[in-house]
Amino acid sequence: MPSRIIDSPRNVDLSDYDPDDTDGVKHKEADALQAKLEAKLQRQQELLYGAGKQSVLVVLQGMDTAGKDGTIKHVMNGVNPAGCHVWNFKVPTPEELAHDFLWRVHQRTPANGMMAIFNRSHYEDVLVVRVHNLVPKEVWHERYDLINNFEHLLAHNNTIIFKFFLHISKDEQRQRLLAREDDADKAWKLSVADWQERKYWDDYQAAYADALGKCGTHWAPWYIVPANKKWYRNLFILQTLTERLASFEKDWSAELEERGKQELAALHAANVHDET
Ligand code: AMP
Ligand code: MG
Q1: What integer pLDDT is reported at residue 92 of this predicted model?
Q2: Which pLDDT belongs to residue 177?
Q3: Segments of the chain with pLDDT less than 50
């Protein structure tokens, strides 16, 4: 199997990747591992926030039912909501359509110290837009380069970018759609469009393969997440986030310490304590 990390342009064939994979991890080990990684991510986010030097952008893409919502719910469990925004990108409004395709996403990119999660993203403009011919090919084809440049700009401005493709099989999608019909708590998620979109499965897989292959860069890598098993999907994403963020921890801690010292010194100099 080729690497699940796409950090330089290459041809991607999604059929090379098994959505059922768990990399040898057993389900019964998952809970303990997940708790450990959640605690790690929580600590990293605190440091990110306190240091205020970098930001983190997490892009979630995948077919309907791939688990974008579930990932946000489970993976971000321990993350402090004060330091994290979730943005959902739906069918563009007339105002959004009257601008360039990056306009709406650029307004939602994370500020220093913050984390942002994109539930769908600018990639829809080379996915659904391509599959349904919403703009001519010359227009969407140009967008891969535009996206790479845009993400380069963000990375240049200290945004650490993770792009996760939640990879499920066509059969798994069918099971999940049917399960929604049987579960009163999940039925609200049903939409006729999901079954209609499913007819374009192969076109979407091809569009995804191109998006991943053309927009996998070292400053904004794509990760192909085996997502048929929800517990492994969550684990894989937590592992990926915490592993890469670990390289910043020392720097962020040093920054926090330095800022703490400065504040204390300023406090002493100002002599603001009163007598009572
Ligand atoms: P959901 O994520 O199920 O709430 O659905 C959101 C819908 O918005 C999906 O069907 C997306 O394909 C669609 N969507 C998101 N971005 C765009 C876009 N730029 N152009 C057209 N449709 C979009
Ligand atoms: Mg949907």
Answers
A1: 98
A2: 94
A3: none
Mutate to test the pocket of ligand 1, among 71, 117, 119, 124 (most ligand atoms within 8 A of CB): 124
- Spacing, Cα 116 to ligand 1 middle (Å): 18
- At 169, list the tokens: 């099989």
pLDDT at position 276, please?
79
- In whole angstroms, give the CA distance from residue 185 to residue 48: 36
Tokens standing for residue 116: 């942002």
Alpha-helix runs per DSSP H in 133-229:
137-156, 170-182, 192-198, 201-214
pTM: 0.96
Q: What is the DSSP letter of 7?
A: -
Report all structural domains of the chain as residue ranges with CATH numbers, in order of start. Answer: 5-261 (3.40.50.300)
Sign of CA dihedral 88, 19, 1, 201: negative
User: What does the pLDDT read at residue 208?
Assistant: 98
Question: From the alpha carbon of 68, which atom of ligand 1 is closest?
Answer: 2
Report pLDDT for 66.
Answer: 98
Cα–ligand 2 centroid distance for 233 (angstroms):
19
In this structure, the residue with its CA closest to atom 21 of ligand 1 is 91
Element (H, E) at 253: helix 230-270
Give the model's pLDDT for residue 152. 98
Q: List, chain by chain if needed, residues with CB within 6 Å of any ligand 1 atom.
A: 89-92, 120, 124-125, 128-129
Task: Please give the structure tokens belonging to residue 45.
Answer: 């986010």
